[in-house]
Amino acid sequence: MSPALGNDLGSKPLDGGWGWMVVVGAHISIGFAYSTPKVLSIFFKEIQENLGASYSEIALISSIMLAVMYAGGPVSSVLVRRFGSRPIVILGGLLCAVSMVTASFGNSIVYLYLCIGVIGGCGLSLNLNASLTIISKYFLNKRPLANGLAMAGSPVFLCIMAPVNQYLLQKFGWRGSLFILGGVMLNCCVAGALMRPVVPPRRPSTCAAQKNVEGEPKECNSKQKRSCMNNAKTFLDFTFFKDRGFVIYLIGNIMFIFGAYAPIMFLSAYAISQGVEEYSAAYLLSIMGFVDMFVRPGTGLIASSKWIRPRIQYFFGFAMIFNGTCHLLCPLMTSYAFLVTYAVFFGVGFGMVFALMFECLMDLMGNQRFPSAVGLVTIIECFPMLLGPPAAGLLVDVFGDYKYLFFMCGSVIMAGGVFIFVMNIYNYHMLEKKKPAKVREQNQMSLENQDQVSASA
After folding, report:
1. How far is CA 93 from the centre of its chain?
2. pLDDT, tens digit (0-9, with 9 covering 90-100), for 38-85
3. What is the DSSP-derived secondary structure letter of residue 308?
4. Which residues pair with 199 in a beta bridge?
5. DSSP calls for 27-72
6. What global pTM score does this model have?
C-alpha cells in the first residue's frame, strides 16, 4: 500500500480520505490497549486458585501491565518518530499476541508478571502512542472528532471483551482463553497495516544544498547534537515543578490513579462473592464501559461550554469526588440490581475524570508545553498505578472482605478531588493577587521610558 501524499505545501493534514481508515485502525489498537488490563481480571479468580496466589499477587499482573504501558510511552514516541506508526503498531500487536500465548503455558505468578505484565505492557504501549500520533498527521480541523472516535475504542472493547472473556473462561479455562486471546490480539497488526504514512513533498535540506561549503558537515552534526539535547530537555523538563498549578494537578492525579483501577479489577470477583452468577458479574464491566462510552464525549461538550470552561479545574475536582463517592457506597450494594446501579454511576464518574484529565493539563500548561508535561505525568503515574491494585488486594488478603478495598479506593480518590478543588481556589487567588503587582511594574516601566524619552528630547 503506497503512502498517502500530503497537499501541495506538505504542511496541512488531509482531514479525511484514508484518514478515516486510520481512525478505524486506531480505534482497534487503542481499544485493546485500554481494555485488556481491565478484562483480564475475569481470569484472576481461576488463575489464583490454580497457581495458589494471593489477591495482592494476582492484582499485580494488571498493575505491571498498566505501568509498563504508561512508562513505555516516551520510548514508543521515539520509535514512532524514527520508523513511523505502521511498523510500530504491527510490532506492538505481535508482542501482545506473544505475551498472551506464552502466558497460557505459565505455571508461576512471576512467569505471568513477565509475559502479561512486561511483554504485554510493552506491546500495548507501542499500540497506544503510535495510534495517537498518526491521527494528528491526518487531521487538523476534524481532529477532535477523529480523536474521540479513536478513544471510543476503550469503552467499546470493554463492553465486548468482558462477556467474551467470560465465555472463553467457561469453555476453555484460563489457559485456553489466554491462548485464543493472543490470536485475537493479532488484529492489532491488521490495524497497524491500515496506518498508511503521510509523505510530504520532498524539500532540499539546507545541509544538502550547501554540502560543498567547507565545514558544512560539522555544522550539520552540531545542529543534530543540539536537537538531541533539546529533545532530552523537553522529555524531562523539571521546571514544571515550579508551577503551582501543575503540582496541584499532579498530586491529585496521583491519588486518583492509585485508587482508579482496583475497583475495576475486583468488581467481577466482588459480585460473585455476593452470590451473583458469573456471566452477570462479567456484564457489570460491560455496563460500566457502555456508560463510559457516552459520558466521555458528553463531558467534553459540557467542559467546552462558556460556563464550565473557565472553571474546568473545579469540574475535574468534582468528577473525582463523584467517582470516590461511588466507591464508598459500593459495599452497601449487595443485590445485583444495586450493583448494576453502581456500575452505571462508576461509568459516569470514570468517564468524566478521564475525559477531563488531559484537557485540564493542557489548560494549565498550554499547547506548547503540553507534550513535555504529559510525558512527565505519565512516567510519574506508573508508581501509583503499580502500587494501587496490589495494596487493594492486600486488604482483601488481610480482612477477607472486598468492602475495605472499595473504602480505601473511594477515600483516596475523594481526598484527591477535595485537594484539587480546595488548592485551585488558593492557586487562583494567588494568581489574582499577582496581577495588580505585574500591572504596577508595567506602568512603572512605561513611566521610566517616558522620562528617558523626555530627558533625551
Report:
1. 18
2. 888 888 888 888 888 888 888 888 889 988 988 887 788 788 888 888
3. T
4. 5
5. HHHHHHHHHHHHHGGGGHHHHHHHHT--HHHHHHHHHHHHHHHHHT
6. 0.76
Residues 6+ apart with CB under 8 A from 98: 119, 123, 182
**Cα separation of 169 and 166, whole Å?**
5
Residue type, 366: G
Report the alpha-carbon angle 252-254-257, nearest 5. 110
Task: Copy the grid coordinates of residue 313.
Answer: 479545574
DSSP for 206-275 reads: HHHHTTTSTTHHHHHHHHHHHHHHHHHHHHT-GGGGG-HHHHHHHHHHHHHHHHHSHHHHHHHHHHHHTT
The per-residue pLDDT for 369 is: 73
pLDDT, tens only, 166-199: 899 989 999 999 999 999 999 999 999 988 887 6
Chain center to CA of 54: 28
Question: Residue 427: which region, alpha, beta or left (left: phi > 0; alpha: psi -120 to 50)?
Answer: alpha
Here the cell at position 277 is 452468577
The amino acid sitting at 143 is R
Asked whether the predicted pLDDT for residue 259 surpasses 80, the reply is yes
Which single residue is written with the C-alpha cell 485493546?
Answer: 32
Rounded CA-CA distance 167/187 in Å is 20
Residue type, 175: R
Q: Which residues pair with 5 in a beta bridge?
A: 199
